[in-house]
Amino acid sequence: MPDLSLLNEAQYKAVTAGNNPLLVIAGAGSGKTRTIVYRLAHLAENGVNPYSILLLTFTKKAAQEMLYRATHLLGTDLMGVQGGTFHAFAYTLLRQFPPSWAKNALSILDSSDCATIIGQCRDEKKIGKGDRSFPKNATILGLISKARNKETTLEDILRRENQHLLAHIDALAELETMYHAFRKEHNVLDYDDLLFELEASLQENPVLLSRMHERFRHIMVDEYQDTNMVQARLVRLLTGKETAVMAVGDDAQSIYAFRGANVQNIMDFPKLFENCEIVRLEENYRSVQPILNIANAILENAPVGFQKNLFSHREYDEKQITVQVVRPLSDLSQARICAKFINELLLKEQADDIAVLFRAGYQSYHLEVELNKLGISFKKYGGVKYTEASHIKDVLSYLRLLLNPMDLPAFERMASLCKGIGVKTAQKLFSLAMQGDKEALQKACKKFPDFWSDLMLLMEIQKNAYPPEKALRVIIDQYQPRMEILYPDDWPRRQQGLEELLGIASSYTDLAVFMADLSLENPEDNDQEEIKSIVLSTVHSAKGLEWKHVFILDLVEDRFPSRHALARPDDYEEERRLLYVACTRAKDSLRLFVPQNVFQRGQGYEERATPSPFIREIHPHLYEEVFEQYGGVLVKQSMAKSPMKTGQTKTSILESFKNAMEYEDNSIKQQRKKDSIVFDKPREEQTFIAPLKKLGFCHHKVFGKGKIIEELEGEKVRVNFPGIGLKVIMKNYLTFED
To answer: What's residue 723's pLDDT?
Structure first.
């Protein structure tokens, strides 16, 4: 028997509600599943026939867990409840009541079958034959599916998300038409067909619709904010005059628009169902109140949404840091600081209690390098590790050969990027290279001019002793056209990963050290689940999960929110909800990283970053703010002097440097005073410096290596230092690279 006294007031209200339509707005961590479980048990205990209950979820596991827990509460089996995903429910009905056009029993295609059909359609019309830029079958299938779930055109999907494929729109549209026709001709359905065919059957078959209304007197839908348009219409169709419908969800956690989810479904629920009662679950059982204050503040400026104010009764030590905004000098030093915090936490916490979240998979590359250097193991969700990304491996094969010309696997990988070279040919070319016979090698490469060009590039890099960033930049320039051919489906996304790698390389002066740090990944056991590791995850992959300590990276404009989201109000608000979801994953502590500068990939220098508008909206009294000063020291910033609102610091460079010095050990401080000649008068013997023949790279004793951006009057230059930004410095104080 379920003990309803264990529920809070709002949960009790939802569980015991009558038969009017009910919308439960379940804030993050508010016991949503518990409420559904108790509702199921309460209905059964009060005489509702389990056979008349329909429970719709987004995963089979979720439905099974809810039914298991409800059975445990009741002490008796809930046999008869129709519980499962929308698609499983649709398939069950379509097997019993096939569509009118079906010739006999229907077959359901898996994704592999569907891709094969796309291939057959291509072969029939010779679409994309010989065009290496044409997308792969699986990609085409994904685009067709996305257009169907969003109920828009294929062209609209390409214009919004895959502009590099727009040149193929006519061919793709023809394939889409052929693919749909093939399925009906051969009496088969794909995954998306299930929902649309069920909708059509319910609309065309009044007898079937009436039977559904007679059977299902209680419909419960979990995660309603994630429904797409056809799923919302199905709920509406299945709800008869005597049906009690209950939708549970949180508009503030609707973050899957890219899959077709439509937040407007949950917003419109009270309008579509008359006499709808709304219950808000606002008591949070996961996080401490300071974290919830941040989450509430993020939602305050949302133009639409169900108002909610999350609160918690969890106790916490007010002396401990709960919420902190960390302002690294740049996105490059952000990784080092984050890794340092994690290393300190691991002295007292379990690794699997720590997570680092980010908007896109490539944004963790810097951190992955730093964690590997510290020997900290991690698991990554929502994107591959940089060490596993094929395009990263392609580019690194060039660098590996620079360090070790006898590296056969690297030679084979670089050779495989050139048309016509297989494993055997690569091995023959390797043997010639090892013999040192340049003429013979050049003759053998006549059929493979791209490969000879690669070898000449490596010789040029070696001859001129290019630093890591420059070497990587010229290699990427050469690799780029091939990447577009090798990965036609998603090369723009892969390009972001390469640009991130450039950012990592910009902080190194020695290629061997750079490659060693990239390769310092800990060997992992085959059974990943037994290894306790910290988690690196995109926010989308983190939904539904929780950790004691959470770090969120790159909270600056163009990254969070992403650049494309700034152009569309709906996309922008989904980014707000994405940050809300990220923050509410944290139980005990939350650190928000807002770099002061960001490395402009492709341009080779850093520029001032603007904090994310969502962070700027949060009142400074809700968090502690710390700034990285020159020298790597973190200094607390007075709330009254916080530059967050403008994105510009009120502390001068000289004052910042001075502040950092005050926090350092006396011996280090004295040494830095000797080195910090940038702030002293120039030495008299260095009164004349010749004009620079060309802009290049230089070294400074305090700021390290930098790129010269501009030569100024008065024997000065403007230099961009990775992790620090632009500085105007006298030439006297710099060592210039040839």
So the answer is: 58
